[in-house]
Amino acid sequence: MKSIQNIVRFGLTVLLAALPVACVAPEATDEDLYVVAEADDLDALATEEDDLASGDEGLLLPTACLTKRVTFDETTQAFTSGYTPVTGSLASGQFKTTTDATTCNGGFRGKSPNGNKFACYDGATTSSVNAACVSVPIAAGIAYRAQVYARSLSTQTSEANKPSLQFFVAGAACGTPKALAYNSVDTAWELVSCDFTRLSSSIVTICVQDLSTSGWANDFGLEDLRIAAKAGQQLGECIDGGGYHRECDGNGNCRTVALVDGEGA
Fold first, then answer.
1. Each residue of 137-174: b (16+ CB within 10 Å) or e?
2. Strand partners, 219
3. Residue 165 forms beta bridges with which residues?
């Protein structure tokens, strides 16, 4: 009997001794998983660099260099104004958004070239009234351009009372005033712009004003207001990588322009 028990005990001992050997297969560690993930990331980066090298401009953040854009087509008003908003015909110091200036006043003319809405103004008869203002984050040392398309809405050919538009950055005049001439082409618009650079990073209010205070023929439209970093400027969002240099293209996008080592992309 004892011999049988000894045989059983011996067999169990051998079996138990063999079990750890069966569990020795290596397990994936956190370090191994990290290395795998790192390799996947490298593959992704290599793919991105191949795309860039093949001529794809690689817009990492499509609006990285575009601080603000107001199309005047927004459902919720995206700007502030010293003019009073109305829905019917305009009087001095009032504005509305429309696709056709004749809805603002029977004596106005003007349409957006793309069929979108624009802001229609009956010029204020008091000075320093902001037509449209936006507050935007501005980075120190970066050159920016504020611009808007504008047109005289008056059907009067008189040059004496035409609107004169200018940008104001943080309350200071920026750029040269733009006098809007009478134009018989309904979809013809003029560019009003100014360039500026700030010494410190901050939220800055940028406004468009009509310098004319005439109560006659002083009517204008605004379309597509933009504040963007100028071409050639490098913001923090336009990150260099993979041997490529990225900078603003002046239209609000980051673009790849050259290899960091100076060779062409």
1. ebbeebebbbbbbbbbbbbeeeeebbbbbbbbbeeeeb
2. 122
3. 178, 210
Residue 133 neighbours by CB under 8 Å, 6+ apart = 79, 80, 81, 205, 206, 207, 208
pLDDT, tens digit (0-9, with 9 covering 90-100), for 210-255: 999 998 889 999 999 999 999 999 988 887 777 788 899 998 899 8
Closest CA to 95 of 77, 113, 114, 112: 77
| Domains annotated on the chain, with CATH | 66-229 (2.60.120.260)
- Residue 145 sits at φ, ψ, to 5 deg, of -125, 130
Record the tokens describing residue 208, joined without a space.
């468009």
User: Rounded CA gap, 57 and 159, in Å?
Assistant: 46
- Specify whether the backbone of 58 is left (phi greater than 0), alpha (psi in -120 to 50) or beta: left
- 224 to 50, 94, 114, 119, 140: CA distances (angstroms): 35, 19, 11, 10, 25
Give the model's pLDDT for residue 21: 39
Predicted structure pTM score: 0.74
Predicted confidence band at 5 (pLDDT cuts at 50, 70, 90)?
low
* Residue keyed to tokens 């935007």: 136
